[in-house]
Design goal:
Number of strands: 6
Strand content: 5-15%
Number of helices: 8
Number of domains: 2
CATH superfamily of the largest domain: f41 fragment of flagellin, N-terminal domain
Shape: rod-shaped
CATH topology of the largest domain: f41 fragment of flagellin, N-terminal domain
Helix content: 55-70%
Largest sheet: 2 strands, antiparallel
CATH architecture of the largest domain: Up-down Bundle
CATH class of the largest domain: Mainly Alpha
Length: 302
């Protein structure tokens, strides 16, 4: 039987190799406990690492969708606020127009009503200048400029008719803006702007043109109210769609966070027990090695 001669040097190298392996195992157990993850590098569990990378990529995309929806919702809230204000003002103007069409009013009464119409005209104009995060909401994609500019008793539209779109899900682009052109221009039988209708109304009231006030201009106001109500409905539908998609995306975020946790998170109680076990084993190995590597005559000669 062949016996291998084990020298002191070989014994020391074997012992040190065993100690190194024990220390590496202890460090991995400590890392798992400290990070709370059982997968800290791909080599720990290649399949789980792949699943974790996939879930993280999906979470990045979903978080972007959430940010997009948050921006769109805030934009639509600003739009709805402005449109509701316009609607309320137009209802007040309509009431004034009906009042002005009464032939019993004096010139002074009609002047007071005309001034109120002018004031509401200016108020509506200011509502069209509403901004979100410094951007004009009714200017199309030309958000750095106001949508309208006064030109005599009318306005000039400075924006464009381009829709603003954002992705709120895979294959789910959303148009979330309303342009000033589609809301406030091309109204009534003459296709005029809302501001021209209001200017004509105040002029007709001052002139005592009751037939025009109670006929053509009142019909134009009704057309403007109908347009604003329609666009409020459009804004409400966009907001409702955003709310539904937010619920979908929130559910997907929860799902992928759970998948990420399953892929890489450690059971902390198990990790603590594993660390304690490896720590005890390493301490025992150190003690055993101290006894196994006995001093030689060379240690005394030193």
């Amino acid at each position: 039987m062949v016996r291998m001669r084990v020298t002191n040097r070989m014994a020391k190298e074997l012992v040190l190799a065993d100690l190194q392996r024990g220390l590496e195992a202890l460090m991995r157990a400590q890392e798992k406990l400290a990070t709370g993850r059982r997968v800290n590098r791909p080599s720990d569990d290649p399949a789980a690492a792949h699943r974790a990378v996939s879930s993280r990529a999906q979470l990045l995309v979903l978080n972007q969708f959430s940010r997009n929806m948050g921006e769109a919702r805030a934009w639509m809230a600003t739009t709805e606020y402005a449109l509701q204000g316009v609607s309320d003002s137009l209802i007040e103007v309509r009431t004034l127009a009906i009042q002005a069409a009464n032939g019993t009013l004096s010139d002074s009464d009609r002047e007071n009503i005309a001034q109120l119409v002018d004031s509401l005209n200016e108020h509506i104009f200011k509502l069209t200048q509403e901004r979100y995060s410094g951007r004009y909401v009714f200017s199309g994609t030309r958000t750095d400029r106001p949508p309208f500019e006064r030109s005599g008793d009318d306005v000039v539209y400075l924006g464009n008719s381009v829709s603003m779109r954002v992705n709120i899900g895979e294959g789910h682009p959303l148009t979330f803006n309303l342009t000033g052109e589609e809301v406030f221009m091309g109204l009534g039988a003459g296709g005029r702007s809302l501001f021209k209708i209001l200017s004509d109304l105040s002029s007709a009231i001052r002139a005592g043109d009751l037939e025009r006030v109670g006929g053509e201009l009142l019909a134009d106001l009704d057309a403007a109210l109908e347009r604003v109500a329609e666009k409020l409905g459009t804004a409400g539908a966009v907001t409702e769609r955003l709310e539904k998609m937010e619920q979908v995306v929130s559910g997907l975020v929860v799902k992928h966070r759970e998948l990420l946790s399953l892929a890489e998170d450690a059971d902390l109680a198990e990790a603590a027990m594993d660390f304690q076990f490896k720590h005890t084993a390493y301490q025992a190995a150190l003690a055993a090695c101290a006894r196994a590597i006995m001093p030689t005559i060379m240690d005394y000669l030193k």
